[in-house]
């Protein structure tokens, strides 16, 4: 069921188009992520949902009703600010109680709910402290507690974890997911960290320059990127530009690379002869060391040969950087466990045609 | 670096401080602390016949302060200064708030407009009020035309308060403006987001966080209002004596320097108390704002 429907929303600031006809449907109870580089309009979209910003064009419906006509203080939407925006003159518990007091709930209920949520975020012992007496991570949890204690229909989180170091961040990610399961609120989280979006969200909208490039589940986004930007931004990818032929993608100086046959109905622009971008994930590339007697490319099922320039071991996987004559930059391959090739070795690169993705350019 | 040469570094630092603090500090020592010490010492001696003091210790200057005649003047002055301060706050806060919300270009223009009256002479501006308020003045002509006047406007407490307010309102607006302008706008948004109407946001967030500016503004208006003797004389017509007038008269007319010093000390005591209250409240309110 659709909770929020964003329809053709645009927002301009002078010369800058922060949002360009953005349309999105966010479902009841889902964990939705807005992913994109800094300045792509993520915060502006959240501010429109919270009511601090009005779009120049477009509609926003909540449960089918016009949300834009509702003043900010009446919206069943809570925002956790990127800067936390805690009230410096109030204690932790006062900060958290503030939203409940506005609902004129009985004192006892306020006290119970504030106590409960502080327990949940692990700050019961700090209830009497002022924000400036807390660490960055604790402040962030106060901001989260203050937003969820209201039990909004929609919870907006603007880069909620960006200020934390890696380990705390991983913990908080789990915490957020647990919370979302527990309280059943619809979450929209903004991030520029694609790993964070992938690990947290049910669905991700990838944004770029005020536009939505693709909305999909993390796995689909990873395996079936629909634009070159998404292919490049989400996870590591190797990109080759060339011309579509019956056998694959023909790239200048590299020959024909294995690519999925263009199916009718899909990728209308990918007819034979049209220009396209081939994306192949590092972990889909097989490396076969070449012996001196081996012949030149084309006879190893792949078509590319290269020289290993760097091997880095990351515990579970190894990353191998290769220089391929005729290709600008390095090609990246990933193998399970330690790499079986050394720097300086010449290898053949191959992949199954079905593992590659062809994108219109 | 700091480990190897603390003595040298410390001396440098001290010297640096002396150079930067020195001139201002020296000026204040000579022209503030020395006169202050003199005034203090006068309070315990007998008056000389033609001014000055006779070096005979006495406590009667202080007992004289308890005379209802003088106490009334002190309390009356405090009352007028308090009224002026409150009115300045009531008028100044909305003004400062609006200026803080203006786009950057208009802010500058508005702030210049606020301090513009300081560019003309204080006495001239005060005389202008006489022209405005006297029984043949502009306000009364208007009232007469409406069949409502003339009303006695000049030489009233109201005229004094109007004059003080007019003179010192900018001193209220400026610190308020800087306090409000510094507030993180996302705090107001957070308040609205949590369900607070605009009025609630004002009372619970904006006002408490701008309290340091409120207190500074109040001190800036109260202090010169309490000590002023030109406005009470010109606009109050000498009918209402404020403590400033009394002090001046003790020194220049009655030539009773010791009693004048006691009165001055009383005013200083009130102000010091006020400053402590202000510092305390500002620290509480603005600890991390
Ligand atoms: N109030 C504003 N005035 C002018 N430009 C703005 C304003 N808010 C955002 N922008 C511009 O709009 C674009 C999108 O900003 P924002 O939504 O904050 O991006 P993100 O959160 O994705 O980093 C940026 O180019 C930013 O400079
Ligand atoms: Mg942002």
Automatic annotation (TrEMBL), chain A:
<dbReference type="InterPro" id="IPR003593">
    <property type="entry name" value="AAA+_ATPase"/>
</dbReference>
<protein>
    <recommendedName>
        <fullName>Spermidine/putrescine import ATP-binding protein PotA</fullName>
        <ecNumber>7.6.2.11</ecNumber>
    </recommendedName>
</protein>
<keyword id="KW-0813">Transport</keyword>
<keyword id="KW-0547">Nucleotide-binding</keyword>
<dbReference type="InterPro" id="IPR017871">
    <property type="entry name" value="ABC_transporter-like_CS"/>
</dbReference>
<dbReference type="Pfam" id="PF08402">
    <property type="entry name" value="TOBE_2"/>
</dbReference>
<comment type="subunit">
    <text>The complex is composed of two ATP-binding proteins (PotA), two transmembrane proteins (PotB and PotC) and a solute-binding protein (PotD).</text>
</comment>
<dbReference type="GO" id="GO:0016887">
    <property type="term" value="F:ATP hydrolysis activity"/>
</dbReference>
<keyword id="KW-0472">Membrane</keyword>
<dbReference type="InterPro" id="IPR050093">
    <property type="entry name" value="ABC_SmlMolc_Importer"/>
</dbReference>
<keyword id="KW-0067">ATP-binding</keyword>
<dbReference type="GO" id="GO:0005524">
    <property type="term" value="F:ATP binding"/>
</dbReference>
<dbReference type="GO" id="GO:0043190">
    <property type="term" value="C:ATP-binding cassette (ABC) transporter complex"/>
</dbReference>
<keyword id="KW-1278">Translocase</keyword>
<dbReference type="Pfam" id="PF00005">
    <property type="entry name" value="ABC_tran"/>
</dbReference>
<feature type="domain" description="ABC transporter">
    <location>
        <begin position="4"/>
        <end position="234"/>
    </location>
</feature>
<dbReference type="InterPro" id="IPR008995">
    <property type="entry name" value="Mo/tungstate-bd_C_term_dom"/>
</dbReference>
<keyword id="KW-1003">Cell membrane</keyword>
<dbReference type="InterPro" id="IPR027417">
    <property type="entry name" value="P-loop_NTPase"/>
</dbReference>
<dbReference type="InterPro" id="IPR003439">
    <property type="entry name" value="ABC_transporter-like_ATP-bd"/>
</dbReference>
<dbReference type="InterPro" id="IPR005893">
    <property type="entry name" value="PotA-like"/>
</dbReference>
<comment type="similarity">
    <text>Belongs to the ABC transporter superfamily. Spermidine/putrescine importer (TC 3.A.1.11.1) family.</text>
</comment>
TrEMBL record, chain B:
<feature type="domain" description="ABC transmembrane type-1">
    <location>
        <begin position="74"/>
        <end position="280"/>
    </location>
</feature>
<protein>
    <submittedName>
        <fullName>Spermidine/putrescine ABC transporter permease</fullName>
    </submittedName>
</protein>
<dbReference type="InterPro" id="IPR035906">
    <property type="entry name" value="MetI-like_sf"/>
</dbReference>
<feature type="transmembrane region" description="Helical">
    <location>
        <begin position="153"/>
        <end position="180"/>
    </location>
</feature>
<dbReference type="GO" id="GO:0005886">
    <property type="term" value="C:plasma membrane"/>
</dbReference>
<keyword id="KW-1133">Transmembrane helix</keyword>
<feature type="transmembrane region" description="Helical">
    <location>
        <begin position="201"/>
        <end position="223"/>
    </location>
</feature>
<feature type="transmembrane region" description="Helical">
    <location>
        <begin position="21"/>
        <end position="45"/>
    </location>
</feature>
<feature type="transmembrane region" description="Helical">
    <location>
        <begin position="257"/>
        <end position="277"/>
    </location>
</feature>
<dbReference type="Pfam" id="PF00528">
    <property type="entry name" value="BPD_transp_1"/>
</dbReference>
<dbReference type="GO" id="GO:0055085">
    <property type="term" value="P:transmembrane transport"/>
</dbReference>
<keyword id="KW-0472">Membrane</keyword>
<dbReference type="InterPro" id="IPR000515">
    <property type="entry name" value="MetI-like"/>
</dbReference>
<keyword id="KW-1003">Cell membrane</keyword>
<comment type="similarity">
    <text>Belongs to the binding-protein-dependent transport system permease family. CysTW subfamily.</text>
</comment>
<keyword id="KW-0812">Transmembrane</keyword>
<keyword id="KW-0813">Transport</keyword>
<feature type="transmembrane region" description="Helical">
    <location>
        <begin position="73"/>
        <end position="96"/>
    </location>
</feature>
<feature type="transmembrane region" description="Helical">
    <location>
        <begin position="108"/>
        <end position="133"/>
    </location>
</feature>
């Amino acid at each position: 069921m659709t909770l929020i429907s964003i329809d053709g929303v645009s927002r301009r600031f002078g010369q800058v188009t922060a949002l360009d006809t953005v349309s999105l449907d966010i479902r009841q109870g889902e964990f939705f992520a807005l992913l994109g580089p800094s300045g792509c309009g993520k915060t502006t979209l959240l501010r429109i949902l919270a009511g601090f910003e009005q779009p120049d064009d477009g509609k926003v419906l909540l449960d089918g009703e016009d949300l834009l006509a509702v003043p900010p203080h009446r919206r069943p939407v809570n925002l956790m600010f990127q800067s936390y925006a805690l009230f410096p003159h109030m204690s932790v518990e006062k900060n958290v109680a503030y939203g409940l007091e506005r609902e004129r709930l009985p004192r006892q209920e306020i006290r119970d709910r504030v106590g409960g949520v502080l327990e949940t975020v692990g700050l019961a012992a700090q209830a009497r402290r002022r924000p400036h007496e807390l660490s960055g991570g604790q402040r962030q949890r106060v901001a989260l507690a203050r937003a969820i204690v209201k039990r909004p229909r929609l919870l907006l989180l603007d880069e909620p974890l960006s200020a934390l170091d890696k380990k705390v961040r991983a913990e908080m990610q789990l915490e957020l997911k647990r919370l979302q399961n527990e309280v059943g609120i619809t979450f929209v989280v903004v991030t520029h960290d694609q790993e964070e979006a992938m690990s947290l969200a049910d669905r991700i909208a990838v944004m770029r320059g005020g536009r939505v490039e693709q909305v999909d589940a993390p796995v689909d986004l990873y395996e079936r990127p629909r634009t070159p930007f998404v292919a490049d931004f989400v996870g590591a990818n190797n990109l080759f530009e060339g011309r579509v032929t019956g056998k694959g993608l023909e790239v200048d100086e590299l020959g024909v690379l294995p690519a999925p046959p263009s199916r009718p109905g899909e990728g209308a622009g990918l007819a034979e002869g049209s220009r396209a971008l081939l994306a192949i994930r590092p972990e889909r590339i097989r490396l076969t060391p070449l012996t001196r007697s081996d012949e030149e490319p084309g006879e190893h099922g792949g078509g590319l040969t290269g020289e290993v320039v760097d091997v880095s071991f990351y515990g579970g996987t190894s990353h191998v950087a290769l220089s391929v004559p005729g290709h600008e930059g390095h090609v990246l391959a990933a193998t399970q466990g330690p790499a079986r090739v050394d720097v300086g070795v010449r290898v053949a690169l191959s992949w199954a045609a079905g593992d590659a993705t062809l994108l219109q350019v | 670096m700091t480990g190897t040469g603390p003595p040298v570094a410390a001396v440098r630092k001290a010297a640096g401080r002396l150079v930067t603090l020195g001139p201002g500090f020296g000026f204040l020592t000579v022209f503030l602390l020395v006169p202050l010490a003199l005034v203090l010492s006068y309070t315990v001696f007998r008056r000389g016949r033609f001014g000055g003091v006779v070096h005979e210790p006495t406590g009667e200057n202080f007992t004289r302060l308890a005379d209802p005649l003088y106490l009334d003047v002190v309390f009356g002055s405090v009352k007028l200064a308090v009224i002026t301060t409150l009115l300045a706050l009531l008028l100044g806060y909305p003004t400062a708030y609006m200026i803080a919300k203006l786009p950057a270009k208009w802010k500058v223009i508005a702030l210049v407009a606020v301090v513009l009256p300081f560019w003309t002479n204080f006495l001239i501006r005060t005389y202008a009020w006489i022209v405005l308020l006297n029984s043949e003045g502009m306000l009364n002509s208007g009232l007469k035309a409406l069949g409502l006047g003339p009303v006695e406007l000049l030489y009233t407490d109201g005229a004094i308060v109007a004059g003080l307010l007019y003179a010192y309102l900018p001193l209220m607006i400026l610190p308020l403006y800087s306090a409000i302008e510094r507030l993180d706008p996302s705090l107001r948004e957070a308040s609205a987001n949590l369900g607070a109407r605009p009025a609630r946001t004002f009372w619970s967030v904006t006002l408490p966080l701008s309290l340091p500016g409120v207190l500074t503004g109040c001190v800036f208006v109260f202090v010169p209002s309490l000590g002023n003797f030109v406005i009470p004389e010109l606009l109050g017509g000498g009918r209402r004596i404020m403590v400033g007038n009394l002090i001046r008269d003790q020194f220049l007319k009655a030539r009773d320097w010791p009693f004048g010093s006691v009165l001055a000390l009383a005013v200083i005591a009130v102000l010091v108390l006020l400053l402590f209250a202000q510092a305390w409240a500002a620290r509480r309110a603005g600890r991390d704002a």
